[in-house]
Specification:
Elements lengths: L2 H7 L4 H13 L5 H34 L2 H48 L11 H43 L1 H11 L2 H35 L1 H7 L2 H53 L12 H42 L19 E9 L9 E7 L4 E5 L6 H9 L6 E7 L4 E2 L7 E3 L10 H5 L8 H10 L3 H5 L18 H15 L3 E5 L9 H12 L4 E5 L3 H6 L2 E6 L2 E4 H6 L1
Helix pairs in contact: 1-7, 2-10, 3-4, 3-5, 3-10, 4-5, 5-6, 5-7, 5-10, 6-9, 7-9, 7-10, 9-10, 13-15, 15-16
């Protein structure tokens, strides 16, 4: 389903929504301990607040009766319980925040395992959706649980405490509260159903805007060259207006449902206030009801709003739940295929060149009706093998299978030395691709990405192996030069040599190279080839290339055609 289709339909199926609901509930597990403690302190806050209002009502009665001693004790009790209520509320909020951080951290760890190629899985999630999930959606789920989970413990206890105190001092007021309570669950359910569709549309609009913004920035150079910046700006404006309309729709619905609840709550409080006022004036007297004095009437009026405070909070959490449900569905779609046990990317410790064996390996992309790869081949340790073939023939897919980034649909891929035979280990090979990612950091920081603890001497050896000395001499601050984001300050060939230095620093004895001379000028190509030869001395190298000089210098040249590997030299000899 496309983003626009999601925006138009917006409403998930019942079964899918139930799964999302169960998954959303399970997400609270990392913070459950903190949420339970937070709920306990919320209940204590209610008890202290009831006592505080009781002390205030007692003080007011003492002033009316001109009992100075009772006034003093009442004021002291009011001050102490006020401090205790504030401390309990602050502690409850702090514990809820800690639980929210635990939930968000747990979700981000799951997302990291799903978005990064771990345990043989490579994510198909787009960068816009990945960033949205990691930054916003994890917090949406965590914020909901921080609000709702403590309330599940504290709300019933707090409401019961208020109702019990009200019934103890004057039971007719408690009856009004009970009758009003019966209307609230229906209102909350209607409010949730009313807000669900709007939340779905807002989520789809947010995702669409994220994708448009990211694509616009990534393709800005192309848009300028095509003169399409203005049209793209209009697309961005339209997406922003769509999100604005969806957001305002959600706010209107939330405001309307909140207004309905306020009417119900205000009506209940008004009935009690009117009854107490008329009773104190002597106009109303309920048979068998206890006598109403200033202390009793004032206490009932002060604690009645407290009875509805948990209900208001639950209503707010109910609206937040719709947002969290959308977030849970999106996050769950990303992480659902991630294996429970994630294989960590171990740094290679093999001291010998690594041979590679592909035995009856087949690979088929999801939904395809044909195999992309169909291979039985061995790559001898310590040799260079060049793989050639037309674009789209499966060369990069073959490298990803050897690296362990993908699992074969059938067959087995094995790394082997004289003493070890194992499945591919993520991070165990050195990878140099067509594009080199350079960060806004110094040259050494960019080189040590794959080995953060590397010493200056180790970085210097990597620089020598990659032939970067001449490049460093031309930089403004030499080795300590800070490169701009995306590699500003170095050429494409120089960036490729930085990638070679980075791979050399890892110490891998198996190198996988995906078109390293691609997009280089006539002068840079041979230099990169020489740097590769120096850096990979004594290693096993499998290189995908269209470069004739690189292929001619390899020990073995294989051609790939429709996923099948052939000895290119034998094919050419025929």
């Amino acid at each position: 389903m496309t983003t626009n289709e999601m925006y138009e339909t917006g409403e998930p199926g019942t079964a899918e929504r139930q799964d999302d609901d169960a998954w959303l509930t399970a997400c609270a597990a990392p913070g459950q301990h903190w949420f339970g403690l937070s709920g306990t302190f919320q209940t204590l806050e209610t008890l202290f607040t009831i006592t505080r209002w009781g002390a205030l009502a007692w003080t007011a009665q003492a002033v009316m009766d001109r009992a100075a001693t009772h006034e003093t004790w009442g004021l002291m009790a009011f001050a102490v319980t006020s401090v205790l209520a504030v401390c309990a509320g602050w502690t409850a909020g702090t514990l809820a925040d800690r639980g929210a951080r635990a939930v968000a951290t747990g979700l981000r760890q799951q997302l990291t395992g799903a978005l990064l190629p771990t345990a043989g899985r490579i994510s198909e999630t787009g960068p816009a959706e990945a960033a949205w999930a990691m930054v916003d959606l994890a917090d949406d789920v965590a914020d909901f649980h921080a609000q709702a989970a403590p309330l599940r413990r504290s709300a019933p206890l707090s409401m019961f405490a208020v109702l019990a105190v009200t019934a103890a001092v004057h039971w007719p007021a408690a009856i009004v509260l009970v009758l009003t309570t019966a209307l609230l669950p229906l209102n909350m359910r209607l409010a949730g159903l009313f807000a669900q569709h709007g939340a779905d549309r807002q989520s789809a609009a947010t995702r669409h805007l994220n994708a448009v913004v990211l694509d616009s920035f990534r393709g800005m150079r192309t848009l300028r060259e095509l003169g399409a910046v203005g049209r793209r700006g209009q697309t961005l404006t339209t997406a922003a207006e769509r999100l604005n309309k969806a957001t305002m729709s959600v706010l209107r619905r939330a405001f309307l449902s909140g207004a309905i609840m306020d009417v119900v709550i205000t009506f209940s409080i008004a009935v009690n206030a009117t009854y107490i006022g008329l009773s104190l004036l002597g106009y109303v007297q309920v048979p068998y009801a206890p006598r109403l004095d200033l202390f009793t009437g004032l206490l009932v009026l002060l604690v009645c709003p407290m009875y509805f405070a948990p209900v208001r909070a639950r209503a707010s959490a109910f609206h937040q739940r719709e947002r969290a449900m959308i977030a849970a569905g999106a996050v769950r779609d990303i992480v659902k295929d991630t294996p429970a046990a994630v294989t960590q990317a171990a740094r290679p410790r093999l001291t010998e060149p690594v041979g590679v064996s592909l035995t009856a390996v087949r690979f088929r992309h999801g939904g395809a009706d044909y195999d992309t790869i169909n291979a039985d081949v061995d790559f001898a340790p310590g040799t260079w093998t060049a793989i050639t073939g037309a674009s789209g023939s499966g060369k990069s897919t073959l490298l990803s299978l050897i690296a362990g980034l993908r699992r074969p649909s059938a067959g087995a891929v094995r790394w082997q030395t004289s003493s070890v035979r194992q499945a591919p280990v993520l991070g165990g090979s050195a990878w140099v691709g067509q594009q080199t990612v350079l960060l806004d950091a110094t040259l050494p920081d960019n080189i040590r990405l794959g080995r953060p603890e590397a010493t200056k001497q180790q970085i210097r050896r990597a620089v020598d192996a990659a032939g970067l000395n001449a490049v460093i001499e031309g930089l403004p601050e030499g080795l300590n030069t800070r490169l701009g984001e995306g590699g500003w300050g170095v050429s494409t060939g120089e960036a490729r040599r930085i990638a070679i230095a980075r791979a050399f620093l890892r110490g891998a004895r198996l190198w996988l190279l995906d078109e390293p001379p691609a997009h280089l000028g006539a002068g840079s190509g041979p230099e990169v080839g020489e740097a590769l030869r120096r850096a990979t001395e004594g290693c096993t190298v499998i290189i995908v290339t269209h470069s004739f000089p690189l292929a001619a210098a390899a020990d073995t040249v294989l051609a790939i055609d429709d996923g099948l590997l052939h000895d290119a030299r034998l094919v050419n000899a025929r």
